[in-house]
Amino acid sequence: MSIKRLLVINPNASPAITELVKSGTDSHLGPNIIPTYWTCPEGPAVLTSQADIDKSTKLCLRELKPMIEDYDAFLLACYADHPFSAALKVEVGSKPVVGVFEASVNAALEILQPPKRFVIMTTGKAYEKQLSDGVKRLLGESKVQSYFAGAVSTGISPPDTMPEISETARQKVREGVKRLMSNDEIEAICMGGVILYGMEDFVMQSCQAELGADTARKIVIIDQLEAGVAMLKHELKIDI
Hints:
Asp/Glu/hydantoin racemase; 8 strands; Rossmann fold; 50% helix; amino-acid racemase activity; globular
């Protein structure tokens, strides 16, 4: 198997978030993928609105176009229905471009047993609609109600989780899980925000507190970065 050069893209201007992405991605890559982690050199440090997302698309495209030939694949490490993925695919041709949002939705669909559905636990309130609209775009109107039970924001922001996960973040997760568990058809929870990486075990603990260990054990917590790498390996035809 030949070595593949991967560019992992953080479309905001926060090196701390890039380091968080690196900590959650490296262990899943294996020996045949050599990653480079890239942070957008300007623009918002955190993408909190559609305007921020659209601005980052333009900035990232401008900066990355000269680098496209240096890489075999691209991973967008931003949990949003981000237009940059589609824009980059136009530029790179047949090279794989994977976004962690799309990858986590795909991972959830692979494990669902209808009538069970998946939900997204996200960060800011604006992302509830942004991600719900994104799932609708991916699945289509006819399927979305059968598979998707919505997105719930926690209000978690970078100061809550970096440099370490705070008690404030844990409390916000507990409250988010309470809202998620109002629906008894949930089989998978997608962690919907890069700054939520590392909280997967705590989300499961919160599910156990709400539902009991036996019921909670049936719920799968989708690690967005692991899902992104798995989808990328599939497209590169690398064994997972």
